[in-house]
Amino acid sequence: MQKEFPVFSLLNSALNTISAAxxxxxxxxxxxxxxxxxxxxxxxxxxxxxxxxxQDQIKLYNYFGFLMDHFTxxxxxxxxxxxxxxxxxxxxxxxxxxxxxxxxxxxxxxxTGPHLTFPVTxxxxxxxxxxxxxxxxxxxxxxxxxxxxxxxxxxxxxxxxHVIACHTxxxxxCGDLHGHLEDLLLIFYKNGLxxxxxPYVFNGDFVDRGKNSLEILLTLFGFLLVYxxxxxxxxxxxxxxxxxxxxxFTKEVLGKYSVHGKKILKLLQMIFxxxxxxxxxxxxxxxxxxxxxxxxxxxxxxxxxxxxYASALRPPKxxxxxxxxxxxxxxxxDEWKQVMDVLWSDPMPQNGCIPNEVRxxxxxxxxDVTEEVLRRNNLQLLIxxxxxxxxxxxxxxxxxxxxxxxxxxxxxxxSNRGAFIRMGPDxxxxxxxxxxxxxxxxxxxxxxxxxxERSALQALREQLFVHRSDLIxxxxxxxxxxxxxxxxxxxxSTTERVLNLGLPWRVLRPQLVSSTQRGMMxxxxxxxxxxxxxxxLEISDNSILDTMYKNHSNLETIFRIIDTDHSxxxxxxxxxxxxxxxxxxxxxxxxxxxxxxxxxxxxxNKDGSIDINEFLEAFRLVDISAHN
Amino acid sequence: MAxxxxxxxxxxxPAEIEEFKESFGLFDRVGDSQVGYNQVADIMRALGMxxxxxxxxxxxxxxxxxxxxxxxxxxxxxxxxxxxxxxxxKGTMTTTLRVLRVFDKEGNGTVMGAxxxxxxxxxxEKMSEVEIDSLMTGQEDENGSVHYEAFVKHIMSV
Lengths: 628, 158
Prior knowledge:
The complex is a heterodimer of chains A (628) and B (158).
Chain A: H1 6-70, H2 75-85, H3 93-99, H4 122-133, H5 140-154, E1 160-163, E2 171-174, H6 181-191, E3 200-202, H7 213-226, E4 231-233, H8 241-247, H9 249-256, H10 261-274, E5 278-281, E6 285-287, H11 298-303, H12 330-344, E7 346-347, E8 353-355, E9 363-365, H13 367-376, E10 381-384, E11 393-396, E12 401-404, E13 418-423, E14 429-434, H14 438-442, H15 445-466, H16 468-476, E15 485-487, H17 488-499, H18 505-512, E16 520-522, H19 523-529, H20 542-550, H21 552-562, E17 569-571, H22 572-586, H23 592-601, E18 609-611, H24 612-618
Parallel strand pairs in A: 1-5, 2-3, 3-4, 6-10, 7-9, 10-12
Antiparallel strand pairs in A: 2-13, 5-6, 8-9, 11-12, 13-14, 15-16, 17-18
Helix pairs in contact in A: 1-15, 4-7, 5-7, 5-10, 8-21, 9-10, 16-17, 22-23
Chain B: H1 14-26, E1 34-36, H2 37-46, H3 53-59, H4 65-70, E2 72-74, H5 75-86, H6 93-101, E3 110-112, H7 113-122, H8 129-136, E4 145-147, H9 148-156
Antiparallel strand pairs in B: 1-2, 3-4
Helix pairs in contact in B: 6-9
GO molecular function (chain B): calcium ion binding
Domain EF-hand (chain B): 15-50, 91-126
Protein name (chain B): Myosin light chain 3, skeletal muscle isoform-like
């Protein structure tokens, strides 16, 4: 047939080819969609764990605040709490100047790092950036001198920076950097260094999480000193010494500067409180780190005494003097809310304005609030940061709000791109995206999704592990005959109830649970398989272990606060007192004796004090399965 | 072209439906428990289906371009559409290998990468250059040939 009627064979062949194309295209598009779903799951995991951590810290702070306000503890405990809120540290600026004086610090001949001359010049700061690129460290003397100059300068700035957009000088706006020096260097490479011809706005969260937070600060402050009218820094929620205790910046500074770290941290604490809260371009574009709420009022924000808010995590008390009791007035609370909202809020798709329970501070605000606040303040656009976005930026609220995020690979290598905005006098934003690190460019989409996913699942397994006692009790409610089995449906709803992370458990199940039979799973076996830890201490009491694991970050924060001289040691007494205070917040039944025994066992040096780092190491979760 | 017969419309198990609902929620970027018409095809694919775009448009009732961009659908309306797509033949490893064999001129288990690229970009529901690059990365050997059994295993798995 084919020989006699060649037309048929041609037609047949063409049809075959088209069918082939269609089938392959269908499979390809399915493959991509499934990868996309995995990526979204992974993203949700990282984000919910991140925000749950922030919420946790704020809850802890509120708890101590509650104690301060409502409870007349014995004098020793009151001291401990006052300590935590640094109530008694009130000094004049002149006294601080003396304390921060760098002049007595000598730069010896053996120092091979960069030198800085003052007043700083563009050349000096560029050389500093080069030095940081080569992983050099700046001498403590120069650090203190640079920070001192920065502090003096920032005190002269208003709460809101005003910028005029100009044809010849488009403005560059960057979002969160979080210690990712490689991203800042990439931005400078693509866009040029800051100068009077190249104005920049940096929208907060320069520190924490990444390992070069200090280098980023020194770079930004250096350029700020050279071009004070063209470099604009907004404060972020991580420019806060209490948050830094938990998220790594404090540790970074103390690790790099063992002798002068404490002074550097103190000076930074003051600098953070003096950072401006907002930048406005041409009276039309508002740039703040977090966002707004329905009560956001730029006039009020312009008038607050911003340096009172050293840590946004607690409403400020007035400076007490010997005659008057310190009182928090209504105005104080109103101002505090203005500041918190601007630093911590997130947009939501629905109309309205509700407290941001996920983060623990600020609000969730809707498109109607955006319209109202923009209208009221005569603005046309809101640019904010605070939330990681896969493409580095995202529009919302009918394109009236932009989220700009500049730390690429934030959750994991390959997780997201970073971006920055260039804006001219037409106030139209142009986005430039990038991704630091050479390794991730070589990964295929599938490999990069897999890599990030593995990391997220690991983090999630840790969360499941620390909640295992709560999970098992909750599962047992559905297993009255104690068979050790539970349906997948009950597993999913119960796990969500206990962990409260808002995750798609049924979708994640194949990655978390090795086997099910007819829709049922063995939950005792599953918990065992999570096999995260290998206790380093001889502690038979599992509930103590579990409580320590679960509250690891909180404990670290508290201990570092108590350790005021940053010696790395706290006394038994302080440990015991802290525990007593934390007991009701952590809802734990652990007795005073159990704690005393624990303290004894972790006195590794047998000198009556506890080494914080060793303590935290002892309770750090180590994934055994990773070694197999 | 021999195709599999359409499978009888099977009911989804309740547990399956719960899982679909969770996945559906992952694609809701607005927070109204709905997804856009233009997302429906991808969600179905994420749930293990592999319809053509044309098939999905038909199931959506042949909406206008405007509707595709703006209309949204909730899970209850989505589920019957998913069932319809589930009943369509998906193609198996065997059928997919068979269609590729058409391009295997030498009968040695390989096809020319270049030929595949041209076919995918000009026929059927055309793929863009970016999509084709993403598909073909690492699949062509030094002679530009694709070993299609491995290739099919690659695109059919996740």
